[in-house]
Amino acid sequence: MSFSIDVRQELARVIPGARCCRIAELSAFYELAGFLLGTDNQVLDFNNSSPVVARKILLLLKGLYPELSTQVLVSKSRSRRAQLCTVRVLGRAGAGQVYQDFKDQNVLGKLGIPRKKCCRRAYLRGAFLSSGSITNPERAYHLEISTEQTSLAEKILEIIASLGLEAGVTQRKGSLVVYIKDGSQIVTMLNLMGAHNNLLRFENVRVMKDMRNQVNRLVNCETANVDKTVKAAMDQIEDIQTIAATIGLEELPPKLQEVALVRLENPYASLQEIGELMTPKMSKSGVNYRFAQIREKTRQIDKLTTKY
Length: 308
Ligand SMILES: [Zn+2]
What we know:
- With 308 residues, the protein is α+β, with helices and mostly antiparallel strands.
- It has eleven helices and eight strands.
- It has helices at residues 3-12, 19-33, 51-64, 92-101, 117-131, 150-162, 183-193, 196-245, 254-265, 271-277, 284-307; strands at 34-37, 43-48, 70-76, 83-90, 132-134, 143-147, 168-172, 175-180.
- The protein is rod-shaped.
- The N and C termini lie far apart (77 Å).
- The site of zinc ion has 7 residues, from helix 2 and helix 5.
- Zinc ion (ZN) is lined by residues 18, 20-21, 24, 116, 118-119.
């Protein structure tokens, strides 16, 4: 099962206790995928592709309006193999009552934005359950809610911002997609919506990824150091070969001859290891100094050869 489905399954089981939050969440379901139908508004529909979410919508409705007459319809959507679940509120009075509550100024303030924080969280949960998705964190950090209505996209953006998060918006196939790409912000969003189990899963992946990145950085750093050592050794060997090919190694003072021979026999050894192989043993800086002298000698030779 995809991570997105898991999050939806979890959120579908979160039933807010307060009336205000129930109305706010239902209003999100209605605004993103609902319709008021019939010439006289006899029917109010909530659509969703998931039976678990449809069950939640039904529970929210029945909790608020026990007398409500409802119907659940399941149909195959034409374009995709996915099914479409419709929770239908029947009768003008019932549909009207639910619809009127979506205009309740005590719950939903200016532009329909929920007044209280608890209701904003509920609204986002409803919006996500209607048309949201989240990418598996192993692949990427991405959570989105899409809608065809500009005003709705703006509203969702504003609610997200009011909760201290930063979302972006982009267009895709005629829809507006409100998205969050930052890992820690997605964690906060999951927390606000109430997906606590999947939040932990998300965090575990994030910690593992972070650790892998750190290990990779260390390995790269180590490789860089090894590269430097190898490069230095190659330079030294080149110097020694230049001397051997021109004046001859035997022209070097015995101390330099010795270190040059040890280097030729141990091309991959570090300065410290070279020092260990000398008799008597030498410090790293001592070895380094001798190679500096060899380098100096090579420079003199280079000067001479370029002169003539
Ligand atoms: Zn509330």
